[in-house]
Design goal:
alpha+beta; 3-stranded antiparallel sheet
Amino acid sequence: MKVVLIFLANLLLFGCSGPEKHNGTNKICDDKFYVEIFTEWSEMGVCYLTDSINFRIKIDRYNFESEYFKYNCKPDSLIIDRWSSYPPPKHILTTKTFNIKKLIKEGTLIKD
């Protein structure tokens, strides 16, 4: 019975704190936008793109140890590539393109 109570107490204590922990914020595109980085699990994270006023949108989940993002800023769009360094050679896993005017117009909803 003690084991069950300890398990339930840990579940309430750690399970209700939310799966994401803020891990940092990086400025991109000449400081016009920010990428917010959160840790979900020990080596897994999720990133959000924001201008801190008009929108905040999920970029993608990634593995801290073997994946990273590259940002290509254009006047009207932002291209984000998720790269993998394992297994070699480095390669692009996904590419997302965001229209800047559309992001600002659609507002602050978080979208997957």
